[in-house]
Amino acid sequence: MERVTKRLKIFGKVQGVGYRAWTVQTATALKLTGWVRNRDDGSVEAVVTGDDENIRKFIASCYDGPASSKVETISVSEGLDELLEEFQQRETA
After folding, report:
1. CA 25 to each of CA 20, 37, 65: distance values in angstroms, whole numbers, following the listed order
2. CATH number of the domain bearing residue 25
């Protein structure tokens, strides 16, 4: 199993719709670690670490998100593994 880390910036109607809580639930179900937070620019940022296949499943599901969200685009880049033991919701940055 290859451990990888990705940083996602998720744009669209993703704040005020339960997107962060949904992200924590989805990442935890896929046994991923990392964090998610709202950004001042209206986007949501997430860093996810885990098995490459589960990371791909997570990114694909992020396009759907919770029912009241509407994702327009997601940028994905390499991330830094922070060696966290769980997936966390963080404060807005």
Report:
1. 9, 14, 11
2. 3.30.70.100
Which residues partner with 76 through β-bridges?
8
| Active-site annotation, residues | 20, 38
- Per-residue pLDDT tens digits for 19-63: 999 999 999 999 999 999 999 999 999 999 999 999 999 999 999
Domain that holds residue 37: 3-80
Kindly provide the b/e burial profile for residues 30-62, where b requires at least 16 CB atoms within 10 angstroms of the residue's own CB: bebbbbbbbeeeebbbbbbbbbeebbebbbeeb
Measured on CA atoms in the order 51, 57, 61, 63, is the torsion positive or negative? positive
Q: Which amino acid is present at 52?
A: D
What domain count does the chain have?
A: 1
